[in-house]
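Researcher: I'd like a structural prediction for the single chain below. Treat it as a standalone chain; there are no partners to consider.
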Amino acid sequence: MKRRDFILAAPLVGNVRGANDRIVVGQIGLGARGNYEIDVCLRMPDVGIAAVCDVFEPVVDQAVKRIGGGVAGYTDFRRVLERKDIDAVFVSTPDHWHAIPTILACQSGKDVYCEKPLSHTVEEGRRMVAAARAHHRVVQTGSQQRSAPHYRKVVELIRGGYIGKVSAVDCWNMTNEAPDGIGNPPDGAPPTGLNWDMYLGPAPRVPYNPNRFVWNYRWFWDYSNGMLTDWGAHHLDIIHWAMGVDAPAAVYATGGKFVLKDNRETPDTLLAVWEYPGFTVSYTNHAVNARKIENRSYGIRFCGTLGTLVVDRSSYEVVPETAASAGLLMPDAVDRLLASLRGEQLPRARRSSEPLCAPLAETKISIDPSAQEAHVRDFLECIRSRRNPVADVEIGHRSATACLLGAIAYKVGRRIRWDGRSERILDDAQAERLLTKQYRAPWHLPSVG
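Model: Treating it as a single chain, here is the predicted structure.
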């Protein structure tokens, strides 16, 4: 791919739109997320959808028919980026196709809403950030939990010390696909209308297999990094936000494909542990055992000295520690020993159920989980104001990087140390090489300039 293949518009530096100006968008990728984003945009009178694109022609035709007049359909995203009438694009492709369209969209003067995880490799993510900054683009990561009011409240509680000092954070996803998982369909001819070579893009050339297409691409290393980046990017994003960090110091991951008999490559059982200054984070994924943690199939648990806070997309709950559980009212063990040697009656341990942090008005607060529309609205408002969005590309890159490092640690089978400032893996050449990947010709990771 050469730069002459693209029409590069001048950057819209400082372009501030009026509140009533119509924003024209293009949708790249028409899977579940892409169609959801179309639905959101159709509900917004100040947004016009001018183009839709996917490598599978039947879904393009379907989207054009659903949206109605005035929208063009394409099977090559480059045609969308050539259009000067389009202000912004949504990139809702598989992970391995996030970087190239996002960078080229920035070069063509378009703002971008890119689904999470932001990138397939750490190098891609950093290049995406650089492109956004060099071309003064608004790039929102599709981490819509950042736009949910109850997650914002959780962040305020954690940062405000409501549950005390947090020394450990746990997050998880639990399902049970045993024993067959996604099955073992044979390779074969792609469906009529699917450009399989374009779908693979920079990934290695392989025969068509139904499990490598649409939803199940997540379980193949060439296109994604399994549940660790698919859901882990959501979890780590909130954890980074609440704990005021953006990079771990080290990570270790272990697990394997222990039960499922399907053709996926990513593990069905995984435990990853990140080390941050002053606390640890663990992520557990069971695809073969749906036993819930904290009565939730997914979630985040912040463990503090004064209480525990658990949150998912439906609700959050604070469970205070008590003086008895914390052991604060127990007499000193040495005093008890000396009293025993003197033949004195041992002081009785005093226990109390008094909570160490003030209980909330309700111990469990249920929240409307929908935040996608607010997240898209934030993106649109930033197109007008030119401020950074709530899930700015740098934020998305840092959250994805933590997860990608977990995948690297799993692949090399050992703990790796990370320098977040230089974005280098320390003293491990094999792991360092996995920060990037080889692109299949003629595709390459575009330069920033």
